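job 3f2a | input accepted
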Amino acid sequence: MGIGGLDKEFADIFMNVLATHVLPLEIIEQMGLKHVKGLLLYGPPGCGKSLMATEIGKMLNAKKLTIVNSYKILSNHKQTTAQIHKMFSSAKEEYRRMGANSGLHVIILDKIDGFNRQSSKNALCQLLSKMDEVDQLNNILVIGLTTWPGLIDDALVRPGRLEVQVEIGLPDEEGREQILLIETATMRNLNRLASDVNFQELARETEGYSGMDLNNMVSDALDNAICRHIQTNSTEELQVMLEDFL
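job 3f2a | predicted structure (246 res):
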């Protein structure tokens, strides 16, 4: 999927959420299976929650992928009800017409912690109502994203709603090396990395870095290499060296 450092998390998601989607429709109907309708991804910012959610939609060949910022919906109280209804309407209408042959609709609710009883009780009730309707369908997957799992209302993570929860945390050393290899793939393929660049060493030196931090580090290293190349007026081929990363 092109996402580094999240092998275990993806394996958990595949086993608990995605496995039924790769089975033929005939088997789904014969076994009386129902897809999991909701998934919550939580963890620190910059660790790949949004990327993971988007790639899941692509992997499942979602007919429609809707990404919504929850706080944006809640900022306009007059439009909240209509916007919540709109998120689910196309999937509901398609399932009415096509039944089990309907394509999959993936709804990604970023910052879903905004839906809680203290700040938006009415909006939460509307969202819960729509998610309960989803239980009668088989063509919707709702993915909630949050940095603050403690703010998620208990009602949202009950069975039939966001029933599977997976932490997307900071990558370990092996994960950091994997991310660095992905982020530098183009440079490596075009021989733009010097032979002294040691990704194992860089992975050890970057404990506590998120995937976004590592992405920024690679960008900074490239900037450093360009500046050094210009300042030295070098006639040699531009390459990124270990010192540029450090």
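job 3f2a | Residues 47 and 210 are 5 Å apart (CA to CA).
job 3f2a | closed
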